[in-house]
Amino acid sequence: MTRSSTPVPPPPAAPPRGRRALAIAAAAAVALGAALAGPVAAQASPATGDPAVTRAALDPALVMGRGADVAFLEQEAEHALTNGEVIGPDRTAYTLPAEASGRSAVLLEPGEHVEFTLPAAANAITVRYSIPDAPDGGGIRSTLDVTVDGGGAQALELTSEYSWLYNQYPFTNDPNAQLLHPDWWITECACVPGEDYVVETPFRPMHFYDEQRMLLDATYPAGAVVRLTAPVGADAAWTVIDLLDSELVAPPLPQPDRSVSVTKFGADPTGVRDAAPAFRTAIRWAKRHGVDVFIPAGEFRVSEHLIVDDVAIRGAGNWHSIVFGEEVALKKTAADGSVHTGVGFYGKDAAEGGSTNVHLSDFSIRGDVRERIDTDQVNGIGGAMSDSTIERLHIEHTKVGLWFDGPMDGVVVRDNVIVDQIADGLNFHTGVTNSLAEGNFVRNTGDDGLAMWAQGDTNAGNAFVGNTVQSPSLANGIAIYGGEDITVEGNLVADPVREGSALHAGARFGAEPFTGTLAFTDNTTVRAGTYELNWNIGLGAIWFYALDRSIDQADVRVTGDHYLDSTYNAIMVVSDWPVKDQVSISGVHFADVRVDGTGTSVVSARVSGSASFDNVDARNVGAVGVNNCGSFNFPPTGSEFSLVDLGGNDSSGVNTTGPWMAPWALPNTITCDDRPPVVAPPAPSAW
């Protein structure tokens, strides 16, 4: 997301200055030359070999009916058979376990392996992995040997060229770089560093993982054993395996009737020659003759934006039809600030009227974006597309998978796989209305997984429904920044790492106010409630943030959500210290919510206002149920934030301080503990 991330100091005063070095222990643990010396939180015992299928590293029964309905089955490496080392669980930012699905993974030295037992017939796998960076950044390449039932090995190509970012926003690929913003407050010293402070490098390593897909040499039955081996002599000194997805991929789709193939106009399916001119010609010809464009099986090199309007482009399936391209430096900066271009399908700019009736489906977009430059338009899908559909695409290694700049109306983004992005997975930005993102699977974004940002022109009537978002290395799983009549329903969000959480509503980044209804309904979050670096506090699995203005004009309804295994709080309402007496959050209603495990409280209030609670059940709560600081003025009349008990707010299991919503805490007893100790909750279980 193109926005400032300038930190603001938290309420407590910084400690006195003094000459000292800032030793970043977590960074050292994954530093390029030291990773094998002792991975963070390594376990001596091997994994168990349990072949169970998981969803977001959970028993699927715990998330039934929520999240995307995907074609693959997920298995976690830490449960597979291995002679390597299990690393984690650990939720500490800047560590390999923290960014792994389920916060654990398996580290292989050369010669070691991990084995997965296929739960169903499969002819394709996806491996999520990490390998070291190059000493001076930029990544390395290596391989992984893949065998099934002891057969011949296939080599899976690995790379760290698209991972390993460092430092402060907007980050760098250079592990040796000093602070990008030496005038910013940093948590590590609780200060604005001066010449008396030395930051060890690599500073704040992050975005460790990538994933690679492979079609196997045959279809193998359930019960077949897939072994992944880090080969002796590989370029990678170690390989971390996070998970394996297995899938039965259908043969390539045939060319539809009333369509024209890009190969008719000279597109090279081997990827050697530039196919962009052929694609442009095919798109013009198809539009003129009222037929679709077909991308057959093959790899097509396109290193530029293809402008699409009133046209359908269909592939043979996203495992078979691949459109890829290098990032290309522009000779002069574009009017929009871009200094690069790259592969992407773009609607016309909204200022030019945008595009309409665009339909893209069943192919893959593979970019080449290795650094975050917020002015660059190097997204998989971009521009404005009204009355359009984007379906069953696989998008990887672009800056943002899909970034729509409105005003525009009526786009449907459905059943796509969006992985390994430098920034957001999808963003409805500026005046996007009556649009839907449904059934999408998003993993390993470098910013919000799914976002709506009503900057300058409000968004209205949009919905995120039935999506899965896993392991955003920064920011939120799903974030809503302003807008009217917005719905977030039936989603599954897991493992956000820092400076964000699973579900977020923010009056920030210049967004228009929340109006009408804002509904969070039947969502499940797991291992959320992350650490906010700039404030040095834990967030809620769902958090409401008033910064630019109050959140008090909308009817905010949170109904049927499940917050599982939250690292800190389940629910947070918060403002920023400089505006704490100018903004408020009110009109928020929680009903039929389940909270299973919090490291700290069920509710943390750090703002003025009020919220109501009806049938909110909580168990395994690690601190006082309500941590009510209000606006930190501590008046004798009680906190500036009030909780309204509408009944049925029960507690069960073992809660540290008894019932989570105790009568003595109501309506506005000050129970403020600025940074309470964290009690790790037990694993979630059936309610």
Rg, Å, rounded: 25 Å
Round the mean pLDDT to the nearest integer and report it: 92
- The residue ranges in which pLDDT falls below 50 over 5 or more consecutive positions are 1-45
**Distance separating the two termini:** 37 Å
How much of the residues is beta strand, in percent?
35-45%
- Report the sheet with the most strands, covering strand number, pairing sense and barrel closure: 14 strands, parallel
| Coarse morphology | globular
Helical segment tally?
Answer: 2
Short description:
The protein contains 2 helices and 61 strands. The chain is mainly beta and 687 residues long.
Features:
single chain; 687 residues; mainly beta; 14-stranded parallel sheet; 13-stranded parallel sheet; 3% helix; globular; disordered N terminus
